[in-house]
Amino acid sequence: MRRSVRRLLASLLVLPLTVAGCTVGPSDRPPLAVYGAPTTRSPATTTLPPTSAPTGPGGPGRDVEPIEWTDCFGDVPDTGPGGASFVVECASVEVPLRYESDPTSTFQLEVARAAPSGQDPAAPVLVVVSGSPGQNGRTRVAAVAESLPESIRKQYAVVTLDVRGTGESQPARCIDARLTQTLIDLPPDPSEGDAADRLVEIARALTFTCTDEVGPALSYLDTTASADDLDNLRAALGTPTLTFLGSGAGATLGAVYADRYPARVGRMVLDGPSDPMASPSEVATARGPLLNAALDAFGGACPDFPGGCPLGDDPVSAVSDLLTSLDELPRTSSQGLLVDAGTVLLALADGLGDVPGWPELATALGAATRQDVQPLADLIVEQNHLDSDDNLFNGRIVYGCNDAAQRLPPAEAATAAGALPDDDIFGRYLLGTVSLCSSWPAPEHPLGRVSAAGAAPMLVLGSVQDPTLPYDGVEALAGQLDPAVLVSWQSGQHGAYPASSCVGDIVDGYLLDGSMPNNGILCPP
Length: 525
Hints:
By secondary structure, the chain is of the alpha/beta class. It is built from 17 helices and 14 strands. The protein has a domain at 66-169 and 220-277 and 451-523: Rossmann fold.
């Protein structure tokens, strides 16, 4: 690690990175116009043609009892963080634990619906799955609805759900405080010292603990089974097709659904999906240069943050020095979290794709350079929901391992990391995270090529410099999906909708009246 950190950014390629700040939902963060101002360019559009679709591998579609909405209790707010109020209701949908062999073993899929007061009860439904598994489940339905443009909220009732293994839907809560700490301070470079041996121990502990805590259900918590759950939800909602908005892992879920149930695809928007054919190690090595470039852009933007740059005159060098100092002398936060170089890399890997969050990230890093690691620990807790039952490490580990056929031993991760350029500390760190699945059971449904042949046209969105889920993967997925129309944004922000007004115009037109853009539009910064 030390040789990597000391060379960090001394030899970084200085790549142009045009990014624009925007969040999914109201935010009090300052606009960062330097990364690209909103545009109002109207794209060329056509009207969706009628389509017919064959049966996919999931079957013709499911037939279940109609959903019964009731009042929500306890932990489901009816007001978003920006103050928008909704009529919020909750429901449960019974789904099989294992579709192929034991459909009689079931659990309750927990869902919620948010609608503006006075909306027609027969209004169409937009199912939204955004972020990592569990990140925006049923308890976040008001916040998710509030994040959408008012025109979308007026036309659609918004539905969110706890995908299986998260929230209250067969929860897989196996990442306890001890494992959480190990994931926060992972070795920064698996090729140095005893890092590979430590990763072996962590991988075994993750596998043993999750297998013991969750039991046989552990293997059935994956994106393919969640796609089948989505069709049960669609049937329960009483709609012949699913209208769907997914981002990140939610977008990948939407692609798998479209492949399994092409005849059931309505209007579908997939924002920043990953390529289901790419191995985790391929994604890790692809992200490294993108994160390096994003860090360079972050450093260049820092002097313009409100109040100036908390990292001084040379922000990138300050980050490099921080990595070195915390590698040599970790510090402990008030929560008892050990903060070291791996913690900094985790915060950067999660935060550099969130451009509106850069000032907060800079503040946390700046405090850490002054030996106050509390803001950085607080940021990690916020990013990963560590202060709630919905610790996002659970979904990331369980879905990440169950969706991937690759099992990369730490020794092989160390070899691959050692072959990377010295300046690519992100690629080295991320290869180490891939090895966390090395002891995991073989997957029931590893992801692979999707086609959705015959499905209705759908939108696939991607930011061309996204350091969270690389644009190459978005392009690859769009190429696999027969009915996909690709819309790109010249940005490094993870998530193009509704961050870009150009992309927003396209998506809103598609969701509201079926207007389909020309394939290959590139929206400006």
